[in-house]
Amino acid sequence: MKFQQIDQFAAELRADTRAAVYDGSKKGHEKRTKLLFDEYPDPNRLRVLAGQVKQHVIENLDTYLPAVEAKLKANGVIVHWAATADAANETVLKIMRARGATKMVKAKTMVSEETELAHFLEKHGMEALETDLGEFIVQIDHDHPSHIVKPIIHKNRREIATSFEKNGLGAYNDDPQTITRRARQFLRHKYLEADVGLTGGNFISAESGRLVLVTNEGNSRFCLAATKCHIAMVGIEKIVPRDRDLALLLNLLARSGTAQDLTVYTEFISGPKSATQPDGPEEMHVILVDNGRTEVLASDCRDILRCIRCGACLNVCPVYRQASGHAYRSVYPGPVGAVLSPLLMGDRFKEKADLPKASSLCGACQEVCPVNIPIPDLLLRLRDKGKQEGLSSPGTPPMGAWALLASQPLAWKASLIGGRLMNYLPTKLVPVPALRAWEAKRTLPPWRGGEFRKWLHNRPPKT
Amino acid sequence: MSDDREAILGRVRSALAPLTERAALPAYDTEIAVLRQLLANRDPLAVFADRLRGVNGTALTDIPALVKQLREGKWLHGYCDPALWPRLAPHFGPEFEVETVYDRTRVDDYAFGITRAAGGIAELGTVILKDRSTSHRLAALTPWVHVAVFSRAELFVDLPQAIAALGDDPNIIWCTGPSKTADVEGILIEGVHGPGVQIALVLD
Predict the structure, then answer these.
(1) What is the rounded distance in angstroms from the CA atom of residue B105 to the CA atom of residue B108?
(2) Which structural domains are found in chain A, ordered by start?
(3) Residues of B in contact with A75 (CB under 8 A)
(4) Average pLDDT for chain A
């Protein structure tokens, strides 16, 4: 039996990886929910409101983008536009070359994962070092992140200790505190030697041009305290209308992502360092990156552009918990990734068309989303898109026979009798491979067909 | 690249052209996001101290308490903003070695860094650093202990108030407790790249 790719990956997943992902995401979700409902009488009001704010932005990007550009320029920021991943990477390389820079320290940014910036720079002879602890471990392991905010949720401490040892970061020691101290000691000197600090951007205010960055480890601050040039790669959808909207979004982002009232470091940057400040960038660049976003904007799934990358939908998703992030083969895993990743593929949609199908449509993702994205609805639209494009669904039983039965009352009645016979027949003998595959992990409930018709005929008359 | 600018804006305009109606910006009061119950009828400084403790930081209101804590932690060598040092120096004993010039080539020498903060946020236990009043970004970040000094009058009650007062400083950072990570098996570890101990010294 051949499954679609994501299901196949989940079926072959190592048990300890599955356990690590399951525990990590479940704990994250429970803490988030407790915090929000302990603190606010109705957290859903906040989510709905934040969703409306972001929806307003994406439906008015034609005015907000030039407005943000003007504010950034007025703040002394050099603004670049990048239509594609290549253009974004080339822009970074050009800035570095113009400064004679060879060393970059990087904070965690999802858009640079999309463009594979670190690989690109290394290929061109630049050093590009990840500084977020999880991303650093991913980098020395030549691995991929498997979660938007917890990149190494799939790894245990023994694997990490082994790769530290292999990379000359001390003898094997799997104590998380020791691991963290070693990374601290190694990375602090790297920041101080670096020429350029690269960050993403969680929000940009159209009102003030402020770029807002949130981290817990302090790595983005270190990038911006040690280097003389700041480059920020920011997706074009990251805009908020006013500074005051940050009050709403910052409160929701930290609580949804990591169950904190606020991230440890929340940085508001509106240009190069002040003249009196000895540390930090004298030059600041913002690269506004499209890389498929305008195509998403043109689709009927544009609501996904509200996403603020908190990862709450991953943590709550029963499919993510079982399949792990790597099953999605994308920068964005989980429910948000099941919508965004195939769309960002553009005309190669087909390669990830299986992702929207890996969902029970239970709706938990929308319930936890801090910007209330109707993810189940968007998944259905993408399933439809796949169907319209005639893409096959390996592992999905053909529905043609069902359609035939459902449209012929007599055939339907006959099948009810057949169904009842199945209660007496061992299911192992049923010659339908899809059913047998399904049964390998579950037990088929006893057939109870015809109950609805019985009820319909015998219901008491309307009074 | 200017070609990319036109390409992106062109695609944005054509993507939005079919929309007959565009979502309006909702009217709302940021009060909705404030933990008002936590703040009601309480001294903001007491709330600030509680909230900072909640994220494993410490709020102090007098200099001798700070000196005592530094001594107990055996953090005896550090940096202090030269503008603050005259006021603090009389309380520091001879066992301390305090520099008022930060040297980035010796980051590992400084066990503590005492810098001026622009204020705090009671609702969250946050200290606010602004570029124009912080003597060194690195001195507030690289030592194991960071002491942020501000005055009681500079304490904001809630987050929306602090947002409204961001002003025109090019770089503002809010620090809420010590630097931390839970990347390794979800276990909380403090002191990743920034301070492992965050102290706020709130003076009158």
Answers:
(1) 9
(2) 5-12+294-388 (1.10.1060.10), 42-291 (3.40.50.10420), 406-458 (no CATH)
(3) 170
(4) 94
pLDDT tens by residue, A2-30: 788 999 999 999 999 999 999 999 999 99
Both tokens of residue B145?
């202990």
**Is-contact B194 B127, C-beta < 8 A?**
no
What is the ipTM, given to two decimal places? 0.97
- Residue B123 is assigned to a structural domain of this protein: yes
Q: Which member of B5, B159, B194 has the closest CB to residue A221? A: B194
- Contact state of A271 with B173 under an 8 Å Cβ cutoff: no
Helical segments of A169-243, H only = 176-193, 219-226
Confidence at residue A34, expressed as pLDDT on a 0 to 100 scale:
96
Q: If you average pLDDT over every residue of chain B, what do you get?
A: 97
Strand pairing report for A265-269 and A211-215? antiparallel
CA-nearest residue of chain B to A188?
B193
Residue ranges in chain B assigned as alpha helix (H): 2-16, 36-39, 44-54, 63-72, 85-88, 159-164
H or E segment and range at residue B59: strand B58-60
Residue B89: which domain range? Answer: 31-203
Q: Does B53 touch chain A (CB under 8 A)?
A: no
pLDDT tops 80 at residue A115: yes
